[in-house]
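Database export, one record per block. Field names are fixed; values are copied verbatim from the stored entry.
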Amino acid sequence: MNEILSVNNVSKRYGNVNALNSISLQINKGEIYGILGPNGSGKTTTLGIILGVLNPDRGSYSWNGNTPTKYDRKKIGSLLETPNFYPYLSARQNLSIACKVKEVSEGDVDRVLSKLDLLNRADSKFKTFSLGMKQRLAIASALLGNPETLVLDEPTNGLDPQGIAEIRNVILDLANEGKTIIMASHILDEVEKICSHVAILKLGNLLTYGPIESVLNNQEQVVVASENLVLLERTLSQIDGVSRIQKNGDKLSLILASGKDSTYLNKALFEKGIVASEISIRKTDLESNFLELIK
């Protein structure tokens, strides 16, 4: 895959507060990369550094293999913290000002308004917009000039369920167009629904990172029971494709390798003389896994 962003041992302090401690990440083209963690974990600081708003105390980062320049940063659309628009100007007027700042054609305004379903409110004042509309306008502003990469800081923060769903669909649509998206969030559910990859921060430390399925153990668990639990556990450990066997009361839980299912497991047990009284499938508890990681 093509590397979009490389962060190498980046650290940042604010007085006695260690905001980031030697963070290293690699983000590739086409990924939806979530930076997940509780408030105060260093998410916004990380985004501020890679956008050139903050300077790291130590370490370095590169976009597309190069030390970023002003020209390179114009290829990156960003929403950092609260959307910042003039309340008494219309959506179109605010975006026209953003075009001048970004040095892109004002002809792009209607395109991004249409993409974010705001064209019918183009001439409405910003102060009349709902929170969800304000967030969509901020993303529209980030899309001016058609950047290859978007960096979004808490894009669903403060929104009601309908607004969250709208922003989620916008992000997924943009990803389907081939854009690389880097988003910070403290909401596990949103990261799990949107992102392909995730990095988890806590108090400025990078706890883990990678594809979201492996980081958050987003796999199906198989629950198995039989009369003799000791014999069942010993037998399961001998079956190909079975891993992470754990005892839960009078039952065992396990993970089956890709391509293997409960029918395969039942047959394998029967061939070894074990009759299962229960074989059921359940999703792992993502919230529990996340909370365990950040303890």
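Remark 1: The chain has two domains: 3-215, 220-293.
Remark 2: The chain has a mean pLDDT of 88.
End of record.
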